[in-house]
User: Fold this.
Amino acid sequence: MQFNNNHIDRTTAASFVKLVLDCIDREYPHSQLCWFDSDEDIKPPREMTPAFYGCLDWHSAVHGHWLLVRLCRCFPTATFADSVRTALDRSLTPAKIQGEIAHLQKRPFFECPYGFAWLLQLAMELREWDDPQANTWLAALAPLETIVATNFQIWLQKLAAPDRTGTHSQTAFALGLALDWARSRSDRDFADAIATKARQFYLNDCNYPLQIEPIAYDFISPGLAEADLMRRLLAPTDFADWLSNFLPQFHAAEASQCLQPLQVENPNDYYQAHFRGLNLSRAWMLEGIISQLPIDDARLAPLREIAELHRQHGSVDVTSDCYASSHWVGTFAVYLATARGLGS
Assistant:
């Protein structure tokens, strides 16, 4: 299965929906990073986080729900719409969201920043959807959204240095998603806080060694995530200059050689499966970078070629039923195929 040109048809959308519907209520296997103070803290996932307990881990459950909302919003008359609405009705209830809030009150920075960023994206997707049921789900989710946004900002204010790895703790990736939410909410304080930290952390970066990526089993490119964040903050000419200093490789004739798609040799390996997501996230971040460069920038053509190559590799077997991929990779494919990060 492949998708191209920022397009996703109903058949492909249905396959992604099926991946999520097959696992949002699947409690085990489960991976959860929590701090336990006593036996009373040890509970099954469905009791700890009653809305988002499937899909192997909390963040995947959250962005799995985002996928359902995104595709139901894009395809409101699709045959899968009724099943999606039923699933969202089951998850996004006031009682279950109160259970999520109780969990977060004990662990205020649980799944921050990655999971927090996707929770805000879920709320943003619901808020942008002109649909009566979406309004009901958003009303249930809103108290959790408020707490997540508040705690995210507290976390950010205390952050002394960015995480430059390529997995869940990565700073630039989460800040990009959070900035899109803050702007959609006209939350000037949060948007300004993100901009201030981003400039502090990244504005003077130069000569990033893109050729060393991936670092272990990344599903996010640290270098491209940084550039994708900074394109949200700088005017086109300023961004073009910044990118020249940060990634001078893109000016070279052999630009494509410094960023090649990754192969997945063992699809059942949970870590190696990260490379599926890496190919997809690289593609959408490159498209974000392209969107902010001046129209006469010489880097546009080679960057489009690199982005398309990663899109093609990332879309191969993306609906595989191997749980190492199926519990999460659909989200990355849908984010790319529907151009979510470009304001759509």
